[in-house]
Amino acid sequence: MSNFIGYTLSVISLFQGSDFQRDTPVSNLHYSFDHTAGAVVEEKVSGQYDSVQYAFTKALYKPQSDPLWRKSGVTQQALLFDGYSTFIEKTNFTPAQELTLAVWVAPRAFEWGDEGKLSAIINQQDLPNKKGFALGMYRHGAWSFQCGDGAQWVELWDQEHPLPKNEWSFVVATLSEQGAAIYLNGKKINEKKFSTPFQLAAATDQKLLIGRHNQAAVIEGDMPFSLNMFNGLMDELWVKGQFLSEGEVHAMYLAYLPTGKIPKIPYQEIALDYSKFNGDRYRPTYHAVAPAHWMNEPHAPFYYGGKYHLFYQHNPTGPYWHQIHWGHWVSDDMINWQHAPVALAPEKGDLTPDGIWSGSAHFDAKGEPVLYFTAGNDGKKPNQAVAIARPKNPKDPNLIEWIYHPKLVAEQPQGYLFNEFRDPFVWKEGTLWYMLVGSGIEGKGGTAALFTSSDALTWEYSNPFFLSDSQKYPRLGDMWELPVFLPVGKYKSGETRYILLVSPLKEDIHYWLGRFDKKNNRFIPDQEAPQLMDYGKFGFTGPSGMVDPKTGRSIVFSIAQGKYRGLHAYNMGWAHNAGLPLSLSVDQQGRLLFEPIQEVENKRGQQLLSLKNMSLVDANKALATITGDVLEIKVTLEHKGKQPYGLIVRKSPTGAEQTKLYYNPEQETFGIDRMKTSQFQENGIDEGPLSLAGAPFELRVFLDKSMLEAYVNKRRSITSRTYCALKDALGIEVFGDPAVQVKSLEVWALNPIDWQYVSPVPQD
User: Which SMART domains does the entry link to (predicted)?
Assistant: First the structure.
């Protein structure tokens, strides 16, 4: 007899009894999850198959795919619950008065705990009427069994032995009229004795749900997200109308472990699965994007030990904003990235229980990297402060594990808007470290608070770094997020010229060029009016930056907003992506110049077209056979007239869908016409001022599925989206009057990022 058959029979024997047969209604269940494909799961007691609900079994924007069956079960296979759409529904279930729930779980992440409700592993509950039962996880790995008799709701908690992430745990709950108990890995953790016999009130008006809460909190929207869902691997789930003793629970635990050890889970088996998006019509391929679910601004870039690191705001439970972690990418060139495990997550305690929001990175006196982040703690007022983390093993080039410093390093000074203090940005000049933290001052507008330090750990507040006139420039708002301060060149005197980038709340990125007055710790702008880099109307947001130590370039990273209008992230399974990294400089007139870093050329594949000095008509004849949605296009146009001219991309054969990028010489504007971009969405025109002063129109366009980035003369950009409904909306065309001259035109196919997960390097 094989070990597997032997210990499976040992487990089953614990549940044998006359009522182990098919009951009507059902009160005994066993799901082994031993499937390798398909959208159904066998319930072993009845032999029936139940549907596994999953967002992509009826995918809208990609090929349909099965739920995520995994090989690394405790016995054979297991089911990976994605945290927002995966669950199993069982009808016609009525629990017996005696009850045992037993299951192996490996959580991937923990929810915030909206409305105080569990992330349900299994439940059939009616909370308002105190009926039914639930077994589930909670904040920071706490877990609980709960049940009701119609008059009282009983809760049994384990707060002291949090479930470990990415590891198997065997959780058991037992109930009888005398008492209830919970067990972790065969050991009793908590119990409750009833003074009078407890009669479980069945919530028969509710379905039995596995992985989803019966009465979940909801994030409202066009397509609401249900919260309080299980996120991770599940294996060997039992429900039995029988009370198991402590000895029987322990024996059941051991029966699953023929070697005496809990099996390990390869990280790729439980990690967010980027491969399920193969064939996605809209998900970018050569832009950095989270493996799945929600992301926002990339931040904290740095270069260390031969690797570039970039982090990002991330919700590992679903494609929506909630309980924010720090995702992590690693790269050799800032273009070809690899996924690393989540770097920072909310933890129990007073430091950062309610979110890890944006920040930056720098190096301490030893030259080792330090992450500065916004620590969210709703138990404190204000609820935002600055904390830091250091690598557990600085010799690991991928810097997979990080350790929190136990105390906050900066808190909100007096005089700033309450609860508006976030997104630290750190740099060093001479022997001093400087830190900007986004905030605002009542009646004056947005600003950044400046701190200084002599050791990168102990910070002293100085003053507001820069105050603009929010009455004169209302788009600057009352609060600034994500301040970034970088050198971009020199004045004629040799003094360093800087750029200050800020993100006014719910507005586009604005910037000033100017000087750093170190004597008074203030920024002095060259011009009063804030400037825009991008005219995409909230497409290019969330700035972060660094000076690349390899090349000396000042580089800015951004988030390209999804702009889903008419589509929904639930059906997409991902939200937002990074823009291309940009290299900043200034021209001889002191104007900002920026363009994608040269390394993006590493993604070039076949050159599809190269021509020079052609008429518009002849250029379009050459373009007639060139199609695609993953392209780089460089075009230089000359025109002496006053009519708009430019480039059409993502054009369907009939022109029903198309997107125009144009220059209007008469109005001196650069813009994008999205009136026909997508039949899925209502679209419009976005544009802004740009004077070419007789220079050619030099346009560089990057298409990446739904992503569109356009850069003109290194002076302005447009970041937008093209959610084309028509699959043949792939054409390219130069437009304008016949006098437009095509000085040059080049088109390349671009290769996708070969996404992989990095491997950890053991500490010496």
Answer: Glyco_32 (SM00640), LamGL (SM00560)
